[in-house]
Known about the structure:
single chain; alpha+beta; Jelly Rolls; seven-stranded antiparallel beta sheet; three-stranded antiparallel beta sheet; 5 helices; 22% helix
Amino acid sequence: MTLDRLEAGIRDRQPPLQPPAERCGWAPPGSREADWAPAAASAAVEADGLHGPGAASAPAPAPDLPIHYQHHDPARGIAFQVQRLGFDGLQVLDPRLVRIAPGACNERHRHAHESLFVVLEGRAEIHVGEAVLRLGPGGVAYVPRWLVHQSRNPCSERELLLLAITDFGLTGAVLGDYDRQTRLRFAGRDAFGGAEGQEAAGAAHPMGPTEPAPAARRRRGLRGLCSGLGRRLPAPLRRLWRSAWS
């Protein structure tokens, strides 16, 4: 793939074709739902009411990491928080810890960056477009760019801990700091409330249209033009050019 095609895929906001479930996830032996112990499986079924109101209180953060984002909305069953792993020298990868309270979920949302979710603790129900992956510790889920997704904790007693690894450093360099555009709490245009008829990408929803306003489109077009010109400069000047137009 060329840089031009990669940048176009980041900018165009169009989700890919729905991948089959078996291409969205991987799990080591003993991690898939069919391998769960009977007690854990029955607890997951018992907690299936997480799709509606009544989520538990917000999860406790790791004490040595700052909270990057958190949202607690009992009416939507949302109770989670995100902490960044700030490793020195990272340029493309953006690893984060995602903690979801028992019986709760995060927002349905989509964004420009690709994502890998690794289950560190607990059990996960990860929705990737129309596919549903049920994974235990060690399980991995993949989310393509711009595909609507959501993570749920089906256990009524135990917190879910995910390691989320994205290429936010790359997509942020192309689009600027667009993180809040994806989040329901900030009225992000890529967040979905989860109501019937509002879940597909591009559909109308309470958070506003998915297409940016005309002024935002003009800014993006100008930034794209300048980015294309910058790629023709020598490497030292290219870095200065990108920092000026990022």
